[in-house]
Amino acid sequence: MEATFNLNSFWNSFSNRLEKPVREHLQNVYSCLAISTLAAAAGGYVHLFTDFLQGNFLTTLLSLGLLVALFTVQDNGKNQHVRLSILVGFAFTTGLGLGPLLDVVVSVDPSIVATAFVATCAVFACFSLSALYSDHCRWIYIGGTLMSILSMMLVLSLANLFFGSYLLFQMHLYLGLILFCFFVLYDTQLIIEKRKRGERDYIR
């Protein structure tokens, strides 16, 4: 009974903080995310357990082509199915392209895949809820800082190709984890703010 009451209180609080159009937009965004995740998982499964398709350089090029198509085909209110198909195709080929990496991971310890999936879902859910219940636009202003750190990490990763430093590798690993947690906060509030300003595209 108490759990039901807490759940109702949580939902009422969520409904009061966000207008109905924003809630519907978030539902569409997270639905697309769930569909994309399933498509990527299907791509990885096809590589690991079938001989039908295998991840290689061509599938990587195909995924890049679909990504370009997704940004090229603009939303006109009538082509959601076409754009959603492109998104699913991109997610599937991306999962397929990750197949060789999954081969290595599974050879080390198959449980790593499930652990990574559960941990990623938990982190995403926690930081998304934090962004939804934070003050209005609190995290939007860190976008410039996040992009600067991301650029610095890219430079360091390229430099580490020549230095081969274990310290730089570890720093890149954990700094990247922290950075993308903050990106969840930033992107969630950015999606909300864009919808409030009239943006209706929930696919891109």
TrEMBL record:
UniProt KW Transmembrane helix keyword: yes
InterPro entries xrefs: Bax_inhibitor_1-related
> Where, if anywhere, are coiled coils annotated?
none
Q: Which GO terms describe its biological process?
A: cellular response to unfolded protein; negative regulation of apoptotic signaling pathway
Which superkingdom? Eukaryota
Q: Which Pfam families does this entry report, sorted A to Z? A: Bax1-I
| Keywords of this entry | Membrane, Transmembrane, Transmembrane helix
User: Can you tell me which family this protein belongs to?
Assistant: Belongs to the BI1 family.
Return the protein name. Bax-mediated apoptosis inhibitor TEGT/BI-1, putative
Q: Which organism is it from?
A: Ixodes scapularis (Black-legged tick)
